[in-house]
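Researcher: Structure for this, please.
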Amino acid sequence: MKANKGLGIAYWIVVVVMLAVGAVGLYWRLTTGHKLANYGELIVWGLWVAMYIYFIGLSAGAFLISALVYAFGVERFRPIARLALFTAIISLLMALLHIWFDLGHMERFYEVYTRPNFLSMMAWMVWLYTAYFILILAEFWYESREDFVRWGQKPGLTGWLSRLLALGSKDVTPEMRARDQRVVKVLGSIGVPLAIMFHGGVGALFGVVSARPAWHSGLFPLLFLVSALVSGGGLLMALYAFLAPNKGSAEYKNLLSDMGRLVLALVFLDVIFTFAEYSIALYGSIPGDVAPLIQIMTGPFWYVFWIGQVGLGMVIPIILLAWDRTRTNPFWVGVAGLSIVLAFVGVRLNIVIPPLSVPELQGLVEAVPSPRMTTQYVPSAMEWFLSIGIIGLGMALYAIGYNLLPVRPHLGKEV
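Model: Predicted structure, token format:
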């Protein structure tokens, strides 16, 4: 008990420090705009865009795993389905904050609704995000409504928050619960193609940029979907391994084993897609395709690919989830999940930065003597600080929700 309390205090200390760091980054961003960011004339997207697609992937992956229960009736994953929905909501919020701060004029974001361009891939993505956000909030509410009503009888902040979120509902009859479940099934079924469209749309946003051969591929939407499932599955596996109650029960071990097998299969699928992407481009030897991959594998940040993407994202999870001595151990299964989550930060950075670091015209950098005309990019302090603050905010919201809302994994009969 004391150990858990100590971990909780340490967690909140880390969160408060991250929020303080983020406040500094926010001040810089609001007072200086993009002046302190290190992207320039060639590399126009940086850390914030990479983190945006990273958290979008976590959200889509977590939602699709919840859909196994709500849309397809795979009951073995029901204990984590509601937690997966909640994870999808928080991850989406963190993604949207990152891309919002990347906008040149943040205050104009609403114009994508009031002055739409129906031929813009970005506009379609924003509309899909909006529909997806509304859908997962509604699905989470209908799934949790009965518990909000019951928890509203509790004293203190938990009861007050539950009464607020119940929105005046007081019906806990079996008939109303059955109605809620029918609504959840419909919303979950609608959400599956919606999640595929919006995250595949992120891949399509890159894929339609014909000026960047490394992105211009029909494989990109599929790559984004597979990576979303891997990263979202890894995150949920880690959360369940470390946070689930009754860790000694057979049900806990069986579910963790099932999640391990699912994530292992997804990692192998990601290996196949990554190999296809790299091998086809290298074999074709088209300079525009090969140069970014060479930059990724042998450039100044080679370790992001070999240690991060390959080591943490593929080798370590495969070993831990396939080896008999570790695949049944909750600690090592959780480590495998965390390894995947960390690795995909590097995966997203490698998608965004290296293709932009190759000049479209040979000699362009030398012809224009400007510090902004460079092929080198390292995120500035402002970029790091603001991202750290957004992650800290997400961690704070997640911890508050986990402790005050009915989202914890349940084992056995729910009371």
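Researcher: Any notable elements?
Model: DSSP finds 15 helices and no strands in the chain. Residues 69 and 77 are 6 Å apart (CA to CA).
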